[in-house]
Design a protein that fits this description.
This protein has 1 helix and 10 strands, in the order E-E-E-E-E-E-H-E-E-E-E. The protein has 145 residues and is mainly β.
């Protein structure tokens, strides 16, 4: 059984509200409890993993269901005539690439792969920042690595 979940906040104070979103492959029942993480390092040379169960009304068993989870943040901008005739542009993003081994991944793109046209700010196949520029006949790939 594969369980994937996330919360809407990284931490809360006592009395604050927090929401959890959970997806369970196969829809099996799952059990949940809230814990206070005291030490998360499982290194045998360290103090070891330590957690403390926090008694809450959220603890218990829940029916599971499969829910699609889009990892990361993204936004879609509809094509616009203004974007077609730009003579210059600037793109900016602050990223923390956590899966560089998964091949090229778009950060900010207006790229048509079948036509090799547009622009794309990506984490490339080597895990480096790269800019792709394509005019339909040739592609220029500028990489930081």
């Amino acid at each position: 059984m594969k369980i994937v979940g996330y919360s809407d906040k990284l931490s809360v104070f006592p009395g604050d509200e927090i929401k959890f979103m959970v997806s369970v492959d196969g829809g099996a029942e799952f059990e949940a409890e809230i814990v206070r993480l005291i030490h998360g390092d499982t290194n045998p040379a360290g103090p070891g993993f330590k957690e403390q169960v926090v008694k809450t009304t959220a603890a218990g068993k829940y029916p599971g269901r499969k829910q699609e989870i889009d990892a990361g943040s993204y936004g879609l901008v509809a094509d616009n005539a203004v974007l077609q005739n730009l003579e210059s542009f600037a793109l900016q993003a602050m990223v923390w690439p956590t899966t560089p081994g998964k091949g090229a991944q778009g950060i900010i793109t207006k790229w048509e792969g079948a036509k090799n046209s547009g622009y794309a700010l990506v984490v490339d196949e080597k895990g480096c920042l790269a800019l792709w520029l394509g005019d339909g006949s040739k592609v220029e790939k500028i990489s930081s690595g």
